[in-house]
Amino acid sequence: MTLLTTVFAAIICTIMWYKGAPKSEMKVGPLCWMYWGASLMWFIDAIFEYAELGAEFFTPAPVDMLNDFYLGLSVVALGLIIWLIILLVKDPKGVVKAALFKK
Amino acid sequence: MACFLVPAAEAVITTIATKAIKSKEKEESVKISLSDGSVEEATKIPFSTKLGWLNKLLWGGSALLAFEHVWHGEVVPFFPFLTAVENGEVAEMLAEMGSAGVMMAVLVTAVWVGMLAVSSVVEKRALRAPKLAGEGA
User: Fold this and answer.
1) ipTM
2) How many domains does chain A have?
3) Domain extent for B26
4) Domain span including residue A69
5) Is residue B105 part of a domain?
6) Contact indicator for B44, B74 with CB cutoff of 8 Å
7) 10-residue stretch averages of pLDDT, chain B, 137 residues long
């Protein structure tokens, strides 16, 4: 469930990046890399888990699924916070700069 | 246990390599043809930028996986930081790093190599038309 949540986040971000390209005013690129990187790594985790559990891997207990989804959402939130920090620090639209030097 | 440390270690190496390559690289401009038939001068993506893609994949993935390990209590904010080390499960931890961790690093690198191949094809395709018009790199 964590893998699935992150993959969906990565796909949505990639679509958003493509729509905004080549300007990249919202700096969605780092968010895409982050989610795709984590998705690839969790995919390996899933393969190892599948090798261990077999078909049982596809029928997780509802409590485990909920916990994994909770973790997935938390991971997505952490990614968004990191992206927000990058966006505010790089400030491609100059909004933060304008707010700081407002007369 | 600590599988994310392997891609994180690779990220450190590739980040250092990126910095070293970037300082030696020179800008390479090429002429590309646009869909409307006009020819424009553009800067070729340097290898350091492409290596930056791998850095971002590795750093981003490792950071989010580190969070997952904190969530599961496998990484703690006090010494020795890894629960496996505290519980004397170092051998199991190293075995997991050698299997899952290495596979993670290999998959991310393989995907990046695939991206390099695709970008190389796109670049070659863009350069082909100006060559026909008698303008090259």
Assistant:
1) 0.89
2) 1
3) 5-132
4) 2-100
5) yes
6) no
7) 91 95 82 71 85 95 94 90 88 92 95 94 76 46
